[in-house]
Amino acid sequence: MHKHIAIIGAGISGLTTIKQCLDNDLIPICFEQNSSVGGVWQSEEPHSPVYKSVLTNTSKEMSTFSDFPIPADWPTYLNHSQIEKYIDMYAENFNLLPHIKFNTTVLKVSILPDKRWKVKYIIQCEREEKEEIFDFVIVCSGLIRKPRWPEYKGMNLFKGEQMHSHKYKRAVDFKNKRVLVVGCGSSALDIAVELTHAASQVYLSVRKGKLPWITPRFINDKVLDHTSRFSAHMIPPSIRGRRLENNIMKSFPYPSHLKPTDPLIASYPIVNFEIFQCLTAGKVIVKPNIKELKSENKQIEFVDGTVLEDIDVVIYSTGYNIDNSFLEEHIFTGGCEVEQEFGKDFYRLNWLYKLLFPPKYPNIAFIGFTVGAGAIWPVSEMQARYVISHIKGFIKPLPSQSEMEKSIRNSYESIRKKYCRSARNALRINYVLYMETLSKEIGCYPYFYEIIKKFGFRFWKLIMFGTFTPIHYRLLGRNSWDGAREAITLYNQDNFKPITNEKSINS
């Protein structure tokens, strides 16, 4: 008997989950509250953080789905319109759209006595609520759902404009204005840089008073994330981190008062090198955390006692909260005791085994609730392959509840020791270790002996020393793809050649 699977969200994670269901004779129904696919990458998404000038932080070779390569002749880093086009191509190629209920809001997901799930939803053009029963629920609603606003004294009195970064779309809207951007993540730095082309002055408020580690998209004329399988496995992360720190400092020595205090490997580096040019030219001026917003003269006072006047706009690039309001919160947070123990360090707490399964609840999984140094798209795809393999019984059953609880606890304790305590690090994965571990259990890991036996020694060298693209995971095992070898070869045509400065600029 075919199992019916509810998928919540038709973003990147939802689309690849639909595909994995279809590949394995499951019946998926995806609920999407908007009228198109792509989630945050679609302009229509109301809380989308995507602005017109956005570029991906990971290369196309590392970001691609494993059995539908991003065209090799596309730029190394993709812009907004190219990402939208690729998503639409993926959905059309695998005929995913007929399995999606668009303009449909999921109101509540609740477990039944027989361990199946009831999904209550409403279609926007209809008034009547509907219900359907599913054998399994896969939540793909994502991390970027509910804008998170900071709390500063005087926010209600400030006479200037205040907005969250998800409302920002283009710099020209802020022409000749004095703008303060609050935050130091990817969006904050991108917005600050872009605003310098229109605003009269841009300020950047950094909560800890220090900049994060900031990397360019190209290092020594090579693509930043084009690591090899050999490097990923043989060179310790600490050494790779120190090498990258040294390269960054050679390219732009941080002002001593802004230099990060945490090692790169323990923090979350940001890809944006244009910010340094703006800092040098004084187009962006870094300020510490805000102490108070004042009503007179649109003043803002900072914790170091300095005051700025005539600030026309404050843009809060302060992230998002997970919004799974259709579920009881304890299902994915682990309950009050867990939240009290770990919540003070990680406000994005997800109590999930392998960042996928809540130990206390069968037949439900969460896909795409991770962050890491690698691209998120192939991680979501690998997670979807793993969850579907679990549903179909192709892999060993999950451990007992107590074993899963212990594994999650050990993971959070390890994060506390290794990394800075922050929201990002609560969901942090070691990209290579995570992908390799799941692929071995699924049966798609590219074991070197098997690669040599099937494809020959020369191709094995390409797998070992070429770009570590996720297409590697389609060479062997169930759901392998006949086009994987050709795609990997095509992606590595320029792998051992330096990238010219002209190409770096144009990409």
TrEMBL record:
Q: Membrane topology for this entry? A: Single-pass membrane protein
What are the UniProt keywords, alphabetically? Answer: Endoplasmic reticulum, FAD, Flavoprotein, Lipid metabolism, Membrane, Methylation, Microsome, Monooxygenase, NADP, Oxidoreductase, Phosphoprotein, Transmembrane, Transmembrane helix
Q: Name one GO biological process term.
A: lipid metabolic process
Answer yes or no on keyword Oxidoreductase.
yes
Q: Which InterPro entries match?
A: FAD/NAD-bd_sf (IPR036188), Flavin_mOase (IPR000960), Flavin_mOase-like (IPR020946), Flavin_mOase_5 (IPR002257), FMO-like (IPR050346)
Annotated GO molecular function terms are: flavin adenine dinucleotide binding; N,N-dimethylaniline monooxygenase activity; NAD(P)H oxidase H2O2-forming activity; NADP binding; trimethylamine monooxygenase activity
Q: Which cofactor does it need?
A: FAD
Give the subcellular location. Answer: Endoplasmic reticulum membrane; Microsome membrane
Catalysed reaction per UniProt? octan-3-one + NADPH + O2 + H(+) = ethyl hexanoate + NADP(+) + H2O; N,N-dimethylaniline + NADPH + O2 + H(+) = N,N-dimethylaniline N-oxide + NADP(+) + H2O; hypotaurine + NADPH + O2 + H(+) = taurine + NADP(+) + H2O; hexan-3-one + NADPH + O2 + H(+) = ethyl butanoate + NADP(+) + H2O
Q: Which domain of life is it from?
A: Eukaryota
Under which EC number(s) is this enzyme classified? 1.14.13.148, 1.14.13.8, 1.6.3.1
- Would I find Phosphoprotein among this entry's keywords? yes
In which family does this protein belong, per the annotation? Belongs to the FMO family.
This chain's function reads: Broad spectrum monooxygenase that catalyzes the oxygenation of a wide variety of nitrogen- and sulfur-containing compounds including xenobiotics. Catalyzes the S-oxygenation of hypotaurine to produce taurine, an organic osmolyte involved in cell volume regulation as well as a variety of cytoprotective and developmental processes. Acts as a Baeyer-Villiger monooxygenase on a broad range of substrates. Catalyzes the insertion of an oxygen atom into a carbon-carbon bond adjacent to a carbonyl, which converts ketones to esters. Active on diverse carbonyl compounds, whereas soft nucleophiles are mostly non- or poorly reactive. In contrast with other forms of FMO it is non- or poorly active on 'classical' substrates such as drugs, pesticides, and dietary components containing soft nucleophilic heteroatoms. Able to oxidize drug molecules bearing a carbonyl group on an aliphatic chain, such as nabumetone and pentoxifylline.
Name of the protein this chain belongs to: Flavin-containing monooxygenase 1
Per the UniProt entry, what species is this protein from, by scientific name?
Gigaspora rosea
